[in-house]
Amino acid sequence: MPWTNWLGIALLVWVAWDLWAGSVWLHREFTRQYEPVAYWCLMLVWLGVAVSCFYW
Fold it and tell me: Which keywords belong to this entry (predicted)?
């Protein structure tokens, strides 16, 4: 299995953890409670990065 698949799996676990925790990081922390639009946009960004690792 290529290393990019392992990276994709790790990022998917990280996205799942962020979904459970209710906060996501880019250059600072965004929380689902206080900044829901930014939170969901960043979740989509990280999900896109994770899924793209399987198509490298």
Answer: Membrane, Transmembrane, Transmembrane helix
